[in-house]
Amino acid sequence: MKQNITLSIEKELLKKAKLMATKKETSVTKLLADQLNKIISEEDEYESSKKKALAKLRKGFHLGGTILCRREDLHER
Fold this sequence. Notes:
The protein is mostly helical. Helix content is 64%, strand content 0%.
């Protein structure tokens, strides 16, 4: 479902947007909708990647090797 919105921008910016849209053989509306969609998709992808990375950090990594002694033994006074 599509919905119209009202957008207030400077006249010079609108003029440049119209020129850009013409060069890309599209409309200003389509140009803005595509950019907004791209921004939202990138944000969603970032949040998803962030959650995966934080989950891996919470789980930790096994880097091999074995524990030869306890920490308390190393730091006895």
